[in-house]
Amino acid sequence: MNTANKTPATARPSVRQSAVSEILDTMSYGPAPESPSAATAWLAGHSAGFDLFVNGAWVPAEGPRFASINPADSRELAQIAQASPTQVDAAVAAARAALPGWQALSGHQRAKFLYAIARELQKHARLFAVLETLDNGKPIRESRDIDIPLAIRHFYHHAGWAQLLATEYAGHEAVGVVGQIVPWNFPLLMLAWKLAPALACGNTVVFKPAESTSLTALLFAELAQRIGLPPGVLNIITGDGAVGQAIVAHAGVDKLAFTGSTEVGRAIREATAGSGKRLSLELGGKSPYIVFADADLDGAVEGLVDSIFFNQGQVCCAGSRLLVQESVQADLLARLRTRMAKIRVGDPLDKNTDMGAIVDAAQLARISGLVDGARGQGLTVWQSEAALPAAGCFYPPTLISDADPSAEVVQTEVFGPVLVAMSFRTPAEAVALANNTVYGLAASVWSESISLALEVAPQIQAGVVWVNSANRFDASCGFGGYRQSGFGREGGREGLREYLKPCTTAASVRLAPAAAPTATPTVVTPLAAASAAINRTAKLYVGGAQQRPDGGYTRAVVLGGREVGQVPEGNRKDIRNAVEAARKATGWAANSAHGRAQVLFYLAENLAARAQDFTDLLALDTDVSAEAARAEVEAGIERLFHHAAWADKYDGAVHQAPLHGIVTALNEPIGVIGLVCPDQAPLLALVSMLAPAVAMGNRVVLLPSRRNPLVATEFYQLLDTSDLPGG
Ligand code: NAI
Description:
The chain is built from 25 helices and 27 strands. 1,4-dihydronicotinamide adenine dinucleotide is lined by residues 181-185, 208, 210-211, 240-241, 244-245, 248, 259-261, 264, 267-268, 283-284, 316, 363, 366, 413, 415.
């Protein structure tokens, strides 16, 4: 730099300063590679190929093995077993056999196993980190400082939950045998997210890593053996999607937990529908990253580096859609390009590397195909000129601008280091663009105004919204998606619930027995007499009003060969209208929890005021005794009180994540819920399904008992008098 003679004396840098600048300009980092020797020694010990870990022992592959490749140099690391269908059977059988013993342990005993796992992981953290980097291509800085420490934290945290389970989750027990299938982007961390809560709750597990990144799971199996985890509690079987399919289809599996692509998640949901298996899915994303004009722009740029270039962008919650307020767009993009040009892409084992290798050639081809497609559509594609290694699967940091909200690269999950930038003018436009996606996993909001950030964050339909930060995770915080990003949560109390169910052994409340369809009514009530005298026309109840059914048909309710009343017969159009009315009634969710509680208390009050009418109607409609009918009405009143009480007490939580400050987690209603009531106890069933749903702010489309529907047509008259808003 030789500008000193053109610079005014006051601003001129000293000789010493310019010398430093010159050095800095020419300085480059020398390589600082982490030694792979411990990992390669471990791999050499398995040069004959890896086996499967079933029932606490190593079982050889029955068929041919396949190669696990280091994506940074395309060299083979190991031969992995492809589990056969009979080996999947054996793993499930081992998990089933181990279940009673594992469940019978006290929480404290299970806590000790989880604690031992965390301890062992910590002791071998560097080996796990290097092995992960070799197998996946992620920079050693990330596997060493993020993946492995977070995995360890998960086991510690859930050791604590195992200890507390009996008191915090009294009346709950393990779901049973759990099948867990994970992808390749965070191999050991995903294992920890899945395994720690499952084991803490007393489940036994059949676990399948992704075919391209099985190695840390296999090393983990050795660790489980070393700490003496009882045989069968954890089974690790390797192989491709066919092995995953076999786990999914297996009748001996009680619950499935899957992380991976939306396509496979959809296939798993279809395959398990009607099977009774519990399911949680953590799928893709296209997360918005919103930068307002008043944001700290340099902070936002650093956040973007963490958000979209972390793990080469192969992150389900990557902030892949940059939405920037128009007035600062040019400034932010200029700063971003300057920063992107400094990202070092190269040897993943080098401690100075920022971005390592893409996981495999197929993923690399997918990323470049999508970027080439954007280029072909005339979008502006800017890529850093960082030199890429000659061999291996590398891709440069990429920024695409001038994109239309409907462009393929804006809507499709690229799963690579590719950021798409768009602009907005107002907060409302930012929210609309942010929510214009089929996904809903995560979002980031950047603004120095806490009021603006807190106003915008809850309007974004995403499982996690980070404010002035990105990609923050902790074992105490639930993580998961909306819509095509899946359902179910991992981490925290909410994650624990995925692996628990109410005890089947607990005494259950005995309800009045269902009416025998052929019974003859014994009680002829004043109401029945009245309905016989005045020809009452029951209707559907849609949008807060009584509506005639679209088809114009009415059905006779017959009991013991005698017609006891008539109900309208709804059709598809009625359902559509009801769903539409429910969708429009967004005000109910926005109502305060206290306000919702008030409505439910009022409903209970009105039911109590008409208890005799409902008792008579139940006795007529279901042919239970008058005493049983009265008991059902009383139980209904009590249940409305119960859910009214909960409405303003089911709070979220504030987690104190050790590394990231304060995390606020809010409970939200699901939205519009379809409820189909059973025939048994028609009033109590209706109340029991309706009340918790509306207490939490959901809107409901409810089909009452088909056999005994009369009570529902009376119940909606209570809704009219209890301040429940229409829809
Ligand atoms: P994938 O969803 O096919 O694989 C994830 C896991 O599911 C692997 O263990 C695989 O063996 C297993 N699997 C595959 N087919 C299965 C089936 N029918 N039944 C049960 N298990 C099955 O993901 P893949 O092929 O590795 O990547 C494809 C694309 O998915 C990527 O290009 C990326 O865009 C996206 N992806 C998204 C992830 C996320 O976390 N959101 C993670 C991995 C991939």
